[in-house]
Amino acid sequence: MPLRESEASRPAAVSVVxxxxxxxxLAYERALWALAxxxxxxxxxxxxxxxxxxxARLQSLADQDSRLRVIVNERNVGPPxxxxxxxxAATSEWVxxxxxxxxxxxxxxxxxxxxxxxxxxxxxxxxxFNVGEGESVEDRIARAPRxxxxxRLDQPGFFPETEWARCVWMPANALFRRSVFDAxxxxxxxxxxxxxxETDLYVSAARAGRRVLVTDRGYTYIRSRTGGxxxxxxxxRYEYSVLRNNWYFxxxxxxxxxxxxxxxxxAREQLSLIARRTKPLARAAGRRLTRWARR
Length: 295
Hints:
By secondary structure, this protein is an alpha/beta fold. The protein has two domains: 218 residues, Spore Coat Polysaccharide Biosynthesis Protein SpsA, Chain A, CATH 3.90.550.10; 60 residues. 41% of the residues lie in helices and 18% in strands. The protein contains nine helices and 13 strands.
């Protein structure tokens, strides 16, 4: 239901929450971006066990702008817990969660607020794109497909066919009504690569009766993965985390997702994911064996 006219006409206040780890330059750039947005009342960075100068650089900026708050975890606790810490520290009526290495489209916060007001939404997200080095962002966005409901499971680069649509398959970056977190939070049981932790939150919010939407009025994208963030050192451990976290997600939400017509069934989805994730590993192993045999 759309907001009352008096509520919609009030200037919105937004807290931006950003978890970061060992990405000093990206964190600094994201802080400058957030502080420059008209609707932003405060920016909360959670420096999650960083060993570089991220905390020092952010604190130097906070000394110049009191809207920036820096929470420092001495040890790495992972994105779900780091985000929950930042959310608990946020005080505005709206909270934008954004990853430190994702780049927002122009006027993203203003557009998300506009959709939230017009559609009476509690959560509003946007599609996400992995843009290659040298590739034009504008060209990539122009070629982006549209589909009913926007992003699909593990396919974040779809715009909805309409201006906004109900969706629980959105990527990480989204605007939340602060009261959503009175009912749900990021599930800290996810581990390793934390696969499905964002989707878990969207599904939990929808199951709690909150209006969760995706819009075509913006997007976020990444140019390339840099160091820092989660540990990607072991490919096998990374893939194990994918499968374990996905199964945890499906056991938690599978029955509801199937009832809503969003998946075919928990076991089928898990088997499908196993097939998708193991094929590249098998091909890579085959190439290594071939090279070894030719020596």
